[in-house]
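Internal QA ticket QA-208
Title: Verify multi-chain structure generation after dependency bump
Assignee: T.L.

Test input:
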Amino acid sequence: MDTRARMLGATEESLRETGMAGTGIKEIVARSGAPIGSVYHHFPGGKTQIVTESLQNHSAKALRLLQTFFDGKRPPAKAVKMLFDNAAKEFEKAGSMKGCAIGSVALDLTREDFEIREICQASFESWIELIATQVPRSLAQTIVVALEGAFVLGKALKSGDPFRAAGKWLAATLEAQERRR
Amino acid sequence: MDTRARMLGATEESLRETGMAGTGIKEIVARSGAPIGSVYHHFPGGKTQIVTESLQNHSAKALRLLQTFFDGKRPPAKAVKMLFDNAAKEFEKAGSMKGCAIGSVALDLTREDFEIREICQASFESWIELIATQVPRSLAQTIVVALEGAFVLGKALKSGDPFRAAGKWLAATLEAQERRR
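Actual output:
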């Protein structure tokens, strides 16, 4: 992997673990092993640019993951259950310490972080859009809301259970919704 | 209000707006108007102590607010709908920029923030406990998950709609649950 990609990967990991709070140029350099002089060579826009690009990478990866569940090959209730159970497992496998980079950054945004806020907004909208091809839009939004909230509680409780609980109840809601059609 | 209370209030506001990322001693001093020398006089434990105490205050306030909805005087479906609609309104009134202090901090926690993580855990557990007096525990957990997730999406989308969407679907889930009893 080249230096630029390594730095973006290190930023993404740092954002997932500690949001903007623990993500500075020094941390990115330390995690990636890149020489500090290379930061502004690869990212002339500094921290804003490197954060923006890693969030875009993270968002695209999350969208591809969502697509594997919401590919239309199974009822939405089943897709939601699989998504949340899978998230619980992955979350615990990583030590119950890694959140979603987009969510972690969203809660740290200041009024001045226009560009970064727009990336967060576009990410969430693209995920909602995808899920809304199969369920009512407000329910698609609720699924993304629950996914983000599960990272919050999961990190505090050091457990994947908040994902499992939310997945179970959202699946029940979707099943009731499917029966009523 | 005395200096100590003013500093705690300033910390709480800062945590709600930007999590740990924007909350340092300098910011707390600037927001509270307290002399910088008074920080370690009132909080010998420094940032960890002041953050811990403001989170405890925030958590207790949130619990009291939850109690006004889940007071047993209305069906849980109605309580949830009111809670989320009220949260949407308050969130928008504050410029769609203020999250939950506990949630914002949870996503910024490092492995070393033992004490602060325990406050986050105890907060979420006390809220779940309260709601679980009226609904199944995993559903109570899902309600708190959705509340926290709505702050995440609300901040990114600059809108209270994620609260309204989640409140609507959780109420539908609870109604279905009540019918099945």
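Spot checks passed. Chain B has nine helices and no strands.
Status: verified.
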